[in-house]
Amino acid sequence: MFVYMDHTATTPTSPEVLKAMMPYFGENFGNPSSVYSFSRKSRSAVEKARTQVAQALNADSSEIFFTSSGTEADNWALKGTLDKARLTGKNHLITTQIEHHAILHTAEYLHKFEGVDVTYLPVDSEGFVNPDDVKAAITDKTALVSIMFANNEVGTIQPIKEIGAICRERKIPFHTDAVQGAAHLDIDVKAMNIDMLSMSAHKMYGPKGVGALFLRKGMRPENFMHGGAQEHKHRASTENIAGIVGFGEAMEILKTRLNEDKAINSARRDKLIAGILDKIPDAKLNGAVCGDKRLPNNINFSFIGVEGETLLLDLDARGISASTGSACSSESLDPSHVLLALGLKHEMAHGSLRFTIGRLTTDEQIDYVLEVLPEIVARRRAMSPLWEDYLKSKGEN
Amino acid sequence: MALDYSQKVMDHFINPRNVGEIANADGIGEAGNPKCGDIMKIYLKVNPDTNIIEDVKFKTFGCASAIASSSMATEMIKGRTVEEAWNLTNSAVAEALDGLPPIKMHCSVLAEEAIHEALNDYRAKHGMEIIPIEHHED
After folding, report:
1. Are A8 and A203 in contact (CB under 8 A)?
2. Contact: B67, A383; criterion CB under 8 Å
3. Are A310 and B13 in contact (CB < 8 Å)?
4. Per-residue pLDDT at A346 exceeds 50
């Protein structure tokens, strides 16, 4: 059985989306910037997609700017906002310890090369940012607050509306990295007080290589890509027409089935979580406990005594694709910064396992994982000196 | 995450040899720490007349290359004298596994260190000289 449970890493481009994209690789290859009538098709395709994306967010189409990725949108929002703000003496950025690297590494860059002061807000044991911490961190030098909508590793959904209201009141631009959030949740940028929002198409059954930045009217971070006059002079480079068309389609489809998907995913997620807690002793759920505050497709556990990479390879040998926050999956020796920020001990962070379900998931697959995983964890624990020590210390207490 | 493990690493990871403990072991050694994500524990049964390692078992918490390194290293010292076993290097373990990704070389170092610790434990119990253990930088 092939069981793909890494939908947070990426999703397959859906057939309907691919179908909509195809003409823009071939017959409608025109450059939207050209004047002749043939290019009008490309131009109107981009504008249709812009409307599709805007409508899904309750934004105006003039507020959507296509980029090459969610990462580029994050870079643009942070660097572009700080570049401009620094001209007026504001050089403070507020973000969190659990952001995606697209934000964290950009913040580190701004600190290192542009002298920006960065506040990394902590989170509680479930991964929530406290809005009061945002309020307390704001100074008269604060140029931007950037807090992710929902965490990619542990699925925790932040109180975005509340944080947005604080920023709005203090007149500080508020950016949110919604690369995961937008793929699963209803987002209303107006109601949620969001000024800037990053998205990526391939997390929502669209193609790779295309993202977008929502910029509320009046928000004008300095351009990130300099060059031609594309995207109303705000994002140079010839448009990735097919990709943009795919993004628009994917977003429209997502919106029409959002509630249904949410219900199906949440039910399967809860079944998998309950099953793991029931069948595997000393399994710890990472992230938000309350289902409504957790991405409907995220399941993240730590199994004391076992290292995550071994679980991934054992699962892979049984046809299951999952993910881990273990250092062994990265180029460094440190485990996931997100799990450490939640207060997990290193050895627990090394033993984390993430399943992210989605449209490829079936009920049979959930049962299959629940059949296979307990065996795997038990077998690896049996050869672990850490598990042995843990059992001893547990017996003593 | 791209894991380019050799078939030998995968074989020793999926079917590790010499897993377990030895009751009343003649030498026990441990290396690594949970913070870094690797702990290796080695148990030796040594014939005191010949100094030959008659049995060896291991328990390891760590990634696939840590488990494969433990498995391979235990195979390589079984049937050897304690002197011969001392000379097993981490690069010999890595080589026997048809190589490890550069970032995983420390796993083979752990195997070498855990074996050295176990051998010294045995040596101490049998009035032999303790050999200083060289700790690698990584």
Report:
1. yes
2. yes
3. yes
4. yes
Q: Is the pLDDT of residue A193 over 90?
A: yes
Q: What is the pLDDT of residues A34-74, one digit of tens each?
A: 989 999 999 999 999 999 999 999 999 999 999 999 999 99
3-state secondary structure of B124: helix
A3-8+258-396 CATH fold: Aspartate Aminotransferase, domain 1 (3.90.1150)
In this structure, CATH architecture of domain A15-254: 3-Layer(aba) Sandwich (3.40)
Contact A305 B61 (CB under 8 A): yes
**Average pLDDT, integer, range A179-193:** 98
- Say yes or no: B118 contacts chain A, CB-CB below 8 A: no
What DSSP string runs through A61-108?
GGGEEEES-HHHHHHHHHHHHHHHHHHTT--EEEEETT--HHHHHHHH
Say whether A328 is catalytic.
yes
pLDDT for residue A318 is more than 80: yes
**Is the CB of residue B10 less than 8 Å away from at least one CB of chain A?**
yes
Extract the runs of DSSP E, i.e. beta strands, from A203-332: 211-215, 283-285, 298-303, 320-321
Query: One of B14, B36, B130, B131 is an active-site residue; which one?
Result: B36
Domain ranges of chain B: 27-125
User: Which residues does A contribute to its contact with B (CB < 8 Å)?
Assistant: 305-307, 309-310, 312-314, 317, 323, 326-331, 333, 335, 345-347, 350, 382-388
